[in-house]
Amino acid sequence: MSRQGPDKDTVPPGIEVTDGRVVLSGDLLIGDVADLSRDLQDAQSVDIEQVGRMDTAGAWFILDLAAQIGGPDASAPISGASDVQTLLLDTVRENMPGADAAPDAWPSLTDRIEMIGRKAHDAWRSTVEIIGFLGQIVAALAGLVIHPRRLRLTSLVHHMQEVGWNAVPIVALMAFLIGIVLAFQGSSQLRQFGAEVFVVDLIAISILRELGILLTAIIIAGRSGSAFTAAIGSMKMREEVDAMRTLGLDPVQILVVPRVLALIFTLPFLGLIADISGLVGGALMSWIELGVSPGVFQARLVADVNIWQFAVGIIKAPFFALIIGVIGCYEGLKVGGNAESLGRLTSTSVVVSIFLVIVADAMFSVFFALVGV
């Protein structure tokens, strides 16, 4: 299809410099402004009184011309514009790209110290808020002891299924593979000293005391902690939490307590499943790699590993569950009204939960070492 020619009523644009003024005339439309000359020496202002029709391309041309004449500090004055032209010029001016921002200066030593101080202050403030949030949860739990009917049993069972039962396959598979890896790596090292049979002690103590419950807690933090933050954060975005408060309902008791209790009840059982799966994986690899039969593995396990090795891991489980539940729900209640804060705080929830779980595990290790367990 052939291109249509210009409108018969269009007046060709013109430009000239008179007494320091750039005088524009005719119609400034998108098809013509590119051909106008910009050799405007000694010009100080722009006069558009003789301009007829003008589109956004023409308005941009006028503003760009005024910026070239005025220099980097300020644009040259524009005179003779009608009300409609002034409105168009203002609209285009508001949407014109600004000058490139200057690159940020390299932070000085004072700036770095200030940044560290701000981060330390923010961390301290978040710690105080989390402790206060934990106090609200404890108060809500105390209220349930006094008034058991307030416990939402249906919600608790639902979250126990989501947190516990649905997590069994991934926890069991993870622990099984960890047991295989420990047996394989341990056998390759112990074989050098002819102490292959001690691989049973290595697997049992590592899994029962540390790795079983620690890795389970990390998986639950990434799986369920993030789910808590996302679910409560979505309700916060839709203002459902504010609606609960308006109706006189306590969001902590309705949303937080069932989730925290579900974690506290189910994480010890997940830890038990992880311990059993890890021992099965280690026994299987020991049988394949070292020829340690399941009977020998079981006999040495019973003879050399006492009940405290298992108890140490299970004792940690409720504390890890409390950390994951508190952080997940706390970050969810901090979500603002946009999706960006939801994604950011969900990621923060996982990172902080895993970090605090590892810190708590280190503190438990030091404590049990001091008491001789």
Q: Number of domains in the coordinates? A: 2
Helical percentage = 55-70%
> How do the strands line up in the largest sheet?
1-2-3-4
Seen as an oligomer or otherwise, the chain set is: single chain
Low-pLDDT stretches are 1-6
Structure description:
The chain has 373 residues and is of the alpha/beta class. The protein folds into two domains: 14-95, STAS domain (Transcription Regulator spoIIAA, 2-Layer Sandwich); 125-371, no CATH class. The chain contains eleven helices and four strands; from the N terminus they run E-E-E-H-E-H-H-H-H-H-H-H-H-H-H. The protein has helices spanning 56-70, 83-95, 109-146, 153-163, 168-190, 199-237, 240-246, 251-290, 294-304, 307-333, 339-371, and strands spanning 14-18, 21-28, 45-54, 78-79. It has a four-stranded mixed β-sheet, with helices on one face. Helix 6 packs antiparallel against helix 8 (251-290) and helix 6 (199-237) runs parallel beside helix 10 (307-333). The longest helix is centred in the C-terminal third of the chain and has 40 residues, at 251-290.
